[in-house]
Amino acid sequence: QVQLVESGGGLVQAGGSLRLSCAASGRTFSTYPMAWSLGWFHQAPGKEREFVAAINWSGGSTDYADSVKGRFTISRDNAKNTVYLQMNSLKPEDTAVYYCVAGSTITTIKRGTYDYWGQGTQVTVSS
């Protein structure tokens, strides 16, 4: 099993910044951490869950949704089994619940095929 616990959400004004964190744990993850790419999705009220960003094990490969390119940065600290999402220049349309996910590759995560997900953290951007 892989457990994912997000933190760092909150209320921020438009143009502000937040950093989300996701700590990964569990026997499956700890046994072979190199097998897991990590990523973020978000889901706004009344909308489907959408891909935000993903990163591979080494951190050498990343992918982003067009809507967040240049504003969000995904990174990971494998010593801490943690993935981060630095969100800058936030817009009201970024308001959503943000979910951390774990999957086999960045590509499969982007396609919505992931194996584990966290409970989500709320991000609210006021105008």
Largest sheet: 7 strands, mixed
User: What's the mean pLDDT score?
Assistant: 94
Work out the helicity level.
under 10%
Percent of sequence in beta strands: over 45%
- Give me the count of strands: 11
Q: What structural category arises from helix and sheet content?
A: mainly beta
| Contiguous helical run count | 2
Please trace the helix and strand order, writing H or E for each element: EEEHEEEEEEHEE
Alpha carbon gyration radius: 14 Å
Low-confidence region ranges? none
C-alpha termini separation:
40 Å
Shape: globular
Structure description:
The chain has helices spanning 27-31, 106-110; strands spanning 3-7, 10-13, 18-25, 37-43, 50-55, 62-64, 72-77, 82-87, 96-103, 116-117, 121-126. The protein has 127 residues and is mainly beta. Strands 2, 4, 5, 6, 9, 10 and 11 form a seven-stranded mixed β-sheet that branches. A four-stranded antiparallel β-sheet has the order 1-3-8-7. The termini are far apart. The model has no long low-confidence stretch (mean pLDDT 94).
Task: Write the SSE topology.
Layout: E1 3-7, E2 10-13, E3 18-25, H1 27-31, E4 37-43, E5 50-55, E6 62-64, E7 72-77, E8 82-87, E9 96-103, H2 106-110, E10 116-117, E11 121-126
Parallel strand pairs: 2-11
Antiparallel strand pairs: 1-3, 3-8, 4-5, 4-9, 5-6, 7-8, 9-10, 9-11
Short description:
By secondary structure, the chain is mostly beta strands. It has 2 helices and 11 strands; from the N terminus they run βββαββββββαββ.
